[in-house]
Amino acid sequence: MILLQSPSKYLLQILTTRLENLDKGVELDSHWIEFSDVRYHVQASMKNPNLLFLSVSLPPPPPETVSFGGLPPGAIEAIKAAYGVVAQILDPPRDGFSLTLKLNLSKLPPDEEHKHGVLTKIASVREVVLGAPLRVFLKQLASRTVASDIDKVVALVHRPMESFFLIPQVEKVTVVFPMRFKDSIDILLATSFLKEFVDARRTAGLNNAPPCSWSPSPPPELKGAPPEALSSNAGFVSFVIFPRHVEGRKLDRTVWSLSTFHAYVSYHVKVRLSVHNLMPDCLQSHFFNPFPCQCTFLLNLNMGNVT
């Protein structure tokens, strides 16, 4: 079953093609949207073929979250750490965008493997920026340095004007998603899909995966959250992340998987809808058994390197 990939394939293609054709120096002006909530704009001129301007519009944050100049906490530091001298943050960003980066391709490392790694990281700008605050908490979990006086419930941007929540503790971080869908059929399919995570967690080989639960109402951990942020029509899904789930290279995959959980569920809800419409009833139960999508997601959180 599909796992969403962190790098934007289209952005990575633009960067790679530009680098391979610097001598041609063609004009570039491209707009597109991914995950229905992040808008991209890339511009480059013939005059300075090594320079690209990458602008990103992020989901508008709900009032219960904290942001700085339209960016989540830790985003500036994460950008600087990820891109170094290759990227310069423009302040203010271009009109209509949350972030504009001035990319200098001449400052990419000469080693081809390292160079491709930096381009891939640039193409993963959504994860770098939106995943920044989640990464901070999970890195603290890995090193067991979560502050004892931290807020009991932390709201992070998940979708336009929607949050998901962290309950950070020294030994674990509980992540809770209020799940919302617009279409009535999507609500029914999503609710069924989400409930199956609990059963999937009991599958052999997933004993070390994050414990998960589903409930139709807010779990007790969200007692301190603003009531207006807890509306849901497909229930609440909780994952309990332990240090073993964010050790070493597992951190990147866990941050990405949790940051895009709603998109992951939405994709598989649409797949189920297509199957229900096209496949005979007698084959549907065979197609969906035994929870391949949920098992893949949980295994990905457990192993951190599943593709």
Topology:
Blueprint: H1 9-20, E1 28-34, E2 38-44, E3 51-57, H2 75-83, E4 87-89, E5 99-104, H3 112-123, H4 125-130, H5 132-143, E6 154-159, E7 162-168, E8 173-178, H6 184-200, E9 212-215, E10 236-241, H7 250-259, H8 261-278, H9 281-287, H10 292-303
Antiparallel strand pairs: 1-2, 2-3, 3-5, 4-5, 6-7, 7-8, 8-10, 9-10
Subcellular location: Cytoplasm, Cytoskeleton
Organism: Coffea arabica
Function: Functions as actin-binding component of the Arp2/3 complex which is involved in regulation of actin polymerization and together with an activating nucleation-promoting factor (NPF) mediates the formation of branched actin networks.
Number of helices: 10
How many strands, what sense, and barrel or not for the largest sheet? Answer: 5 strands, antiparallel
Mean pLDDT: 88
Main β-sheet, spatial strand arrangement: 1-2-3-5-4
Overview of the structural elements:
By secondary structure, this protein is an alpha+beta fold. The chain folds into two domains: 9-125, Yope Regulator, Chain: A; 132-303, 2-Layer Sandwich (Yope Regulator, Chain: A). Helices cover 37% and strands 19% of the residues. It contains ten helices and ten strands. The chain has helices at residues 9-20, 75-83, 112-123, 125-130, 132-143, 184-200, 250-259, 261-278, 281-287, 292-303; strands at residues 28-34, 38-44, 51-57, 87-89, 99-104, 154-159, 162-168, 173-178, 212-215, 236-241. The strands form two sheets. It has a five-stranded antiparallel β-sheet with strand order 1-2-3-5-4, covered by helices on one side. The chain has a five-stranded antiparallel β-sheet with strand order 6-7-8-10-9. A hairpin with a 2-residue loop joins strand 6 and strand 7. Keywords: Actin-binding, Cytoplasm, Cytoskeleton.
